[in-house]
């Protein structure tokens, strides 16, 4: 059973030549029912940001604390 989350950055973040802004909102569907979209190493979030915004989550050193989310 999957679960859908809306994820958006808390503030502008500039790191390693990348920029993350609060306008970069994504909707993520997890493969299993979890309470947090960052479980499973945030793989769905990484893939979605790369596909939509060409933003490299790992290169920018992003953490769960950089984002807000709601189910």
How would you explain this protein's 3D organization?
The protein has 71 residues and is of the alpha+beta class. The protein is built from one helix and five strands, in the order E-E-E-E-H-E. It has a three-stranded antiparallel sheet, covered by helices on one side. Strands 2-3 form a two-stranded antiparallel sheet. Strand 2 (13-15) and strand 3 form a beta hairpin.
Main β-sheet, in a few words?
Answer: 3 strands, antiparallel
How big a fraction of the residues is strand? Answer: 25-35%
How would the global form be characterised? globular
Q: Helices and strands: which structural class? A: alpha+beta
Please report the total strand number as a whole number. Answer: 5
Write the element-wise H/E pattern from the N-terminal end onward.
EEEEHE
How many DSSP H or I helices? Answer: 1
Q: Roughly how many Å is the radius of gyration?
A: 11 Å
Strand order of the largest sheet: 4-1-5
Rounded to the nearest angstrom, the distance between the terminal CA atoms is 14 Å
Low-confidence stretches: none
Helix % is 10-25%
So what's the oligomer here? single chain
Mean residue pLDDT: 94
């Amino acid at each position: 059973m999957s679960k859908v989350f809306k994820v958006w950055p808390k503030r502008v973040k500039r790191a390693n030549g990348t920029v993350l802004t609060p306008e970069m909102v994504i909707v993520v569907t997890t493969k299993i029912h979890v309470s947090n979209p960052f479980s499973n190493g945030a793989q769905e979030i990484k893939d979605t940001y790369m596909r939509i915004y060409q933003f490299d989550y790992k290169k920018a050193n992003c953490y769960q604390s950089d984002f807000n989310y709601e189910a």
